[in-house]
Queue: 3 jobs
Job 1
Amino acid sequence: MFRAARAVFGVAFLLATIWASLALFYRLPESPPIRAVAAGVLALVGVAAAISMIWKPRLVVILPFVLCFAGIAVWWNSIKPPVTANWAGDVARQVTGSVEGNMLTLTNVRNFAWKTDGGFVEKWESPTYDLSKLRSLDLFMSYWAGPEMAHMILSFGFDDGQYLAWSIEVRRTAGGKFSPIGDLFKSNPLVIIAATESDVIRVRSNIRGEDVQLFRMRVPPANAARLLLQYVSDANTLAEHPRFYNSLTTNCTTTAAKMMRAVGATFPFDWRLIVNGYLPEFAYDRKALDMNLPFEELKAAAHIAARAKGSGASEDFSKAIREGVPSPLD
């Protein structure tokens, strides 16, 4: 029994070593060589402590690691997301909103005109939406790294032809990049973007060349309205209390799943919420898509890149990309 307990503690030491070493490597406010040396030294101390714990516990080996880890934990908890910085232009503003009766008014809705070289003409708007005219909810999946990983966007459709898309993103600084590993370690804050589809969808399909797929969802308008208001509430909270983006616990898919649970949908934990390229299959299994067709047919019809490129910057972009995509509302 004692040997088994030592083994468990040894494994715990190894996991703590991995986390603490990566935390130093990504977040220690020093030059890259110094960060690498600090992470390497801690890794050696941690491995020695784990081996000692498993084979022959010695306080003189274990205590230095425990003290180092405690110090790192205190330092880690002191790191707060920045409120201001030289943000990249497309994530420079955080959307906020207010509701009066059925009317939702948003500030800082993005409606950029994107150029083929990745540049853009900046345009932020403050539109108003009538929640009583909300009719649909659509799921966009933008595949950027093979079939396993995608960026998820939810878009709310109104019966006057307006579509309002929401995207949970990394708030990068100018020149900064997204790093799935680095963003596990408080590298960048979180930002919630509300945008027109001709901006946030078109930049992925037409400019970045990602495989964008559209799935129209089986969600009653009342539930979609509650989900939209949850987005607005979360955006307002984030504007007042910044948070860090996390590739596993706070990202585009896990945040949306949390919101869906908040409006009454049954979305238990599923591995496809992490390996999110398979989220459409998960949604189909939960009967959240059009159930009149097999999933393979929905998947085949979901690819919108060709229609998006054909539409270009047209005002009919949202209509064009939905042509031929099955909808449970039809």
Job 2
Amino acid sequence: MRQKLFFTGLIVMFALSAIGHFGHWDMTAQFIISAIAIVFVAGFLGKATESVAHYAGQRLGGFLNATFGNAAELIIAIFLVKEGLFDMVKASITGSIIGNLLLVLGLSILMGGLKYKVQTYNIKLAEHNGSLMILAVIGLFVPAVFIKMEHFSLDKDKLLSIAVAIILIVCYLLWLVFSMITHKDMLADEEMNADHGEEPAWSKTTSIIMLVVATVMVAFVSEWLVHTLDTFTHKFGLSELFVGAFVIAIVGNAAEHSAAIMLAMKNKIGAAVEIAIGSSLQIALFVAPVLILVSYLFNRNSIMDIVFTPIELTAIGVSVFIAKSVNKDGSTNWYEGVLLLMLYVILGFAFYLV
């Protein structure tokens, strides 16, 4: 019954979003409908990836969930890059990183901790995740320091941004090789690999088809949502920083929210961490660099650099610091989830007042 209601809501909201866009409805109404629609399609994406994960294994499944869960944010960001809204793109990248590290992970640890006193996962994976998170911060911090130097020309700015982007992508791809091929057994998690007697929502073929359909739906709704952002932002006097870092990020993270929390409540905290932290790492080490290269393809004379503002770097830095502190021992409890959520609220107020 619940699943039937969900798919009814999915179809209705997707249709309303399309009608609102092509019917040129009021921009505020379009934004609200598209935001609700993208939550539904992101939830659909989460269901499809979870079903695929049943056949691919929980570790690969967690990676797929993070990857396809980030599809909404990546597609939204590509449309923003095409429109030249680089500041909003960087804000949405910041929001995605802190949203996954603080909101998604915090809610997962809290809800899982309320049901189970202590939850554990592979400590080796926790250590490697911590190192990668620090690399992500360094990769964003170094260009900001050097490019702000007076003798740095525009050409050097472009060159450094592209070079750092390529290096971060290589680091991420090598991490996939390390974690899923050469050291797969060392980073395995018994709880993540446990079947628990659960049945997938669909067959293997149907799951793959649903995954493709969900991704296409995300692409359409994302474009419709981006179309409304400029009007919505000015009408309500919101800064691009707040809209990008919190509004877009929360909407785009809907798939990770539902999947990670659900897994944590099934005592699969390893899979939940893989989705939340894995998604943040993917954004910082892969999605952000890819957007730099995409902007170069759109317009070689005006590319998006990899220089983030001090506010954005501070938000990412403190988020990584507390997330690494919480996850360093490979065990979690509900109070650690509260700590992550409280920092998210603090940053939310700060960004709103900017």
Job 3
Amino acid sequence: MAQPKYEGYCECTPTKLIREKFGDVNVFAQNAKSLLTKATGFIGDYDFTLNPYRGCQYGCSYCYAAAFTPNAQMRQDWGKWVIFKENAAEILAKELKKWYEKNPKIPPSIYMSSVTDPYQPLESKHQLTRRLLDVMLDVSIDGYPTPTLVIQTRSPIITRDIDYLQRFKRLRINMSIPTGSELVRKDFEPRSPSIKARLNAITKIKQSIDYFKGFLPKISITITPLLPTLATDEAAFIDKIAIADRVVIQAFHPSQSCSLMASTRQEAEEIKQKYAWWWMRN
């Protein structure tokens, strides 16, 4: 089957037109054939990954997910386009039904998301992730256990869904905060939320859930990849991330010249040179 041709990213007649503009981002809509993908690699302990969107508005310079784009031009424009999967909720409902028919007492473990941010700015309008949470919670109506869920994000928008999040018995929220210095964040991920906004979001989640009405999720701070934190910010950052019950630290992915392989982008490699002194010291 021929691959979709996206408007602005092909020389021929496009098969996928720009549905809307969200800031400077081109937004395409597309129906998904499947939503739950078998988890592999460093998240292979989970049953599935789930990505409501393809592409990410945050467009972080180091993001390995850019390698999995439809074509080289879209890879170059990482952060300037997003594809949202219009039928995601319907597909997830069907796939979960199929899982529970085979495993009625075993909840699937789902990692959301591996190559996008489920709470990127577009989510505030389309509420795709919220609809997926609704589908996962609905399985309890039929007597099935709610999926075990990990949400990976860097977005304060997640606080909008506290009413849903507290209904998951097995939930971990991974908040990505690769650096404790705003100057460094602005160099490597200028389109992403501030460090303060992310920490405030975690605090709000922990303070807003009533122990008598819901379940408090486990909280991780993921320093992935490990970016420099300037000496003037280091002590305060260490103190603030103590709010989490786990801190995950991971180095950059190796740089690869080929696509379809997790890889640190050249853009980040160039920015790293500015902070070469930090990596040498540490």
